[in-house]
TrEMBL record:
NCBIfam families: HAD-SF-IB, PRK11790.1. Pathway: Amino-acid biosynthesis; L-serine biosynthesis; L-serine from 3-phospho-D-glycerate: step 1/3. Coiled coil: none annotated. Residues 559-628 form the ACT domain. SUPFAM superfamilies: ACT-like (SSF55021), Formate/glycerate dehydrogenase catalytic domain-like (SSF52283), HAD-like (SSF56784), NAD(P)-binding Rossmann-fold domains (SSF51735). It is an enzyme of class 1 (oxidoreductase). InterPro entries: ACT-like_dom_sf, ACT_dom, AHAS_small-like_ACT, D-iso_2-hydroxyacid_DH_PdxB, D-isomer_2_OHA_DH_cat_dom, D-isomer_DH_CS, D-isomer_DH_CS1, D-isomer_DH_NAD-bd. The gene is serA. Gene3D superfamilies: 3.30.70.260, HAD superfamily/HAD-like, NAD(P)-binding Rossmann-like Domain, Phosphoserine phosphatase, domain 2. Catalyzes the reversible oxidation of 3-phospho-D-glycerate to 3-phosphonooxypyruvate, the first step of the phosphorylated L-serine biosynthesis pathway. Also catalyzes the reversible oxidation of 2-hydroxyglutarate to 2-oxoglutarate. Belongs to the D-isomer specific 2-hydroxyacid dehydrogenase family. This is D-3-phosphoglycerate dehydrogenase. Its EC number is 1.1.1.399, 1.1.1.95.
Length: 628
């Protein structure tokens, strides 16, 4: 049985309403332009929603237009650039199915024909209205004999076509739905790539955010192996709008949630989600991952990834990406600011001022020049702090578990003990690995100098809070800044509880070390791009739990992505299958880590479904997907 596709033109095959464009050309320079354009838009929407008769809407719109024949060539040029993105991607479909694709539109043939024939649609498969011109080339109306100039016209055209097969209508308007309502179509797809009309969507058999969705539903090969709109993205904790926008523009279906979710809530919400975006609050535990039936990637829109069970994610073939240096500078600037504020007792003095007390004295206030800054954890933030601190006169010492290059004149110390005994100011920048729990506790505070300044902008659990509190109260710690806490509120609406509230010369901030507009914008750009690279090409550069592979762009081939447990012999098994199916390998890329193997194979276009089944069935396969 043949499948016929009836496609609407305005806002479906093109991203715009052609009449709106014609209006902006024909009314150019006329005083009534703005008012006429607004009314044309209004009439289009009323017609599309079925709220006024189509013929009335068309008549009134044409009258407002002041259009001439000479306006058509520039209109056609503009429309050529406005073909819907997913239609542009799927030119192959229009070529292959030319015999069964029809464009039926209430617009005008004069501009529709040049656009759609370029896509490969046959000229005699275009049904649309026709303009009437006077002798001077002015548009004076339309051919009223044409059924498409009146309500129910599309149904009438299809009835006359008498197509023998299944009929699928793709359109954004009520008049497209009417074909189905008249019993003349098997399915009506509400096409929402360009506009979403609530009323039309409600009546649709299926919502198609892109042409790929229609093709996928009908098992027709399309530009993508899987429609992007079926990739569900869940973004928690107020991810920057740039990130949301990038993922939406890619065609994914994005759901946002302003706060973090607890384990139970997320374990429920994660079902059906392909990409999860979080920041530092949300714990992605193995229990959550057990329920993650479709999860491909997690984006940590921050630096820290200790909130994610990276090993469990890896074992389930879920790649995790973060933004390793997008907010580094912001944290460093806050640390520098706090070092100065605490050394000068500004915080306490400001509180007194707000209470009406004038305490002008130099006692206990010091310059930072020449003071010894001890940095624990000389990673990206620690090292950057070292450079900036040195440039304003601090004498920098650092301790790291790993061998790190000393920047500038910084002095590397061989033990934490030595650092704690040396520094006047201690700033903590270790990562949040579980072994770092209470890395600074009573014993460590004891080793510090009396009157030390202590700053923690790393992770809350790395400091023993009761020990910190008693050392501030005793005066051992003269000034303290804490930005991160073992327990943090899930959202801005939840209360903040901590033993550190109300202590002297203690700056508490709500985990905003990386919360600058610049940093959030950087992160919003960085993380979605890494995820999209992974989804679209398999590239895992910058993944924190997957072997890092940077892959070339896929050209005229299929890319098979196989993630498996790292046990001997898997590659041999994969390649035996290619040999058995006489598949030519265009390129193969492999990287392993302790736990998993990541193999990408580019093959010629043709392959059998059996090959895919057999590849999936190889023992120890974790995940498998095909890209093209
Ligand atoms: N407050 C905020 O808003 C904010 C913003 C960004 C990053 N962070 C946190 O800051 C910390 C540092 O970030 P980064 O980008 O520099 O990370 P990083 O991974 O580049 O550096 C961490 C360094 O700490 C070292 N280290 C780990 N444990 C240690 C230990 N016990 N003793 C000594 N050294 C140890 C590591 O070897 C590494 O060099 C992370 O915990 C991150 O989550 C907080
Ligand atoms: O913005 C956040 O939630 C986390 C910021 C910071 O702790 C990070 O890890 O980058």
């Amino acid at each position: 049985m043949d499948k016929y596709f009836i496609i609407d033109f305005d806002s479906t095959l093109t991203r715009v309403e052609a009449m709106d464009l014609l209006a902006s050309i024909s009314l150019q320079g006329l005083p009534q332009k703005a008012a006429a354009e607004a009314r044309i838009k209004e009439l289009t929407d009323l017609g599309m929603n079925g709220e006024i008769s189509f013929r009335d809407s068309l008549k009134e719109r044409l009258l407002l237009l002041e259009a001439k024949e000479s306006h058509l060539p520039p209109l056609i040029e503009l429309l050529k650039k406005q073909v819907s993105i997913s239609f542009q991607r799927n030119k192959e479909f229009f070529k292959q199915y030319a015999e069964t694709i029809f464009v039926i539109s209430n617009g005008f043939k004069e501009y529709i024909t040049p656009i759609v024939t370029e896509l490969g649609i046959k000229e005699d498969h275009i049904y649309a209205n026709e303009l009437l011109f006077d002798d001077n080339g002015k548009v004076i109306g339309f051919s009223e004999d044409n059924p498409l100039s009146k309500d129910g016209g599309k149904a009438e055209v299809i009835r006359k076509l008498d197509l023998d097969g299944d009929i699928y209508v793709i359109g954004d308007g009520h008049n497209d739905y009417e074909i189905k309502a008249a019993g003349l179509a098997n399915k009506f797809y509400a096409f929402t790539e360009n506009v979403s009309r609530e009323k039309v969507m409600k009546k649709a058999d299926h919502i198609a955010p892109s042409l790929e969705e229609v093709l996928f539903e009908n098992k027709i090969m399309s530009a993508f192996s899987y429609p992007k709109n079926r990739i569900k993205v869940l973004l928690l904790e107020n991810v920057h709008p740039i990130g949301v926008d990038l993922l939406e523009k890619e065609g994914f279906t994005v759901e946002e949630y302003p706060a973090g979710l607890d384990e139970e809530e997320l374990a429920e919400k994660i079902k059906g989600v392909s990409i999860l975006g979080i920041r530092s609050k949300t714990q992605v535990t193995s229990k959550v991952l057990e329920n993650a039936d479709r999860l491909m990637a997690i984006g940590a829109f921050c630096i820290g990834t200790n909130q994610i069970d990276l090993e469990a994610a890896q074992e389930r073939g879920v790649a995790v990406f973060n933004a390793p240096f997008s907010n580094t500078r912001s944290v460093v600037e806050l640390a520098i600011g706090e070092i100065i504020m605490l050394t000068r007792n500004i915080f306490d003095k400001a509180v007194l001022m707000h209470q009406g007390n004038w305490d002008k004295s130099a006692s206990g206030s010091k310059e930072i020049r020449g003071k010894k800054l001890g940095i624990i954890g000389y990673g990206n933030i620690g090292a950057q702090l070292s450079v900036v601190a040195e440039s304003i006169g601090l004498d920098v010492y650092y301790y790291d578990l790993e061998e790190k290059l000393a920047l500038g004149n910084a002095t590397k110390l061989d033990s934490l003990k030595e650092l704690l005994q040396t520094a006047d100011i201690i700033s903590l920048h270790v990562d949040g690995r579980p072994e770092n729990k209470n890395v600074i506790g009573e014993a460590e505070f004891k080793l510090m100098k009396d009157g030390v300044i202590f700053i923690n902008l790393s992770r809350g659990h790395v400091v023993d809070i009761p020990a910190l509190k008693s050392n501030i109260e005793s005066g051992k710690i003269k000034g303290c800044a804490v930005d991160v806490f073992p327990e943090e509120p899930k959202s801005n609406k939840d209360p903040f509880e901590s033993e550190l509230k109300g202590l002297p010369n203690t700056i508490l901030s709500p985990h905003i070390g990386g919360s600058t507009e610049e940093a959030q914008e950087n992160i919003g750009n960085f993380v979605p791009n890494r995820i999209m690279e992974y989804i679209n090409t398999g590239t895992t550069t910058n993944s924190v739990n997957f072997p890092n592979l940077t892959l070339p762009r896929l050209q005229n081939a299929h890319r098979l992505i196989h993630i498996h447990k790292n046990v001997p012999g898997i590659i041999a098994k994969i390649n035996q299958l290619f040999a058995k199916h006489e598949i030519n390998i265009a390129g193969q890329y492999l990287k392993t880590n302790e736990k998993i193997g990541y193999v990408i194979t580019d093959i010629d276009k043709a392959y059998s479904k059996d090959l895919i089944k057999e590849l999936r069935a190889i023992d120890h396969t974790i995940k498998f997907r095909v890209l093209y």
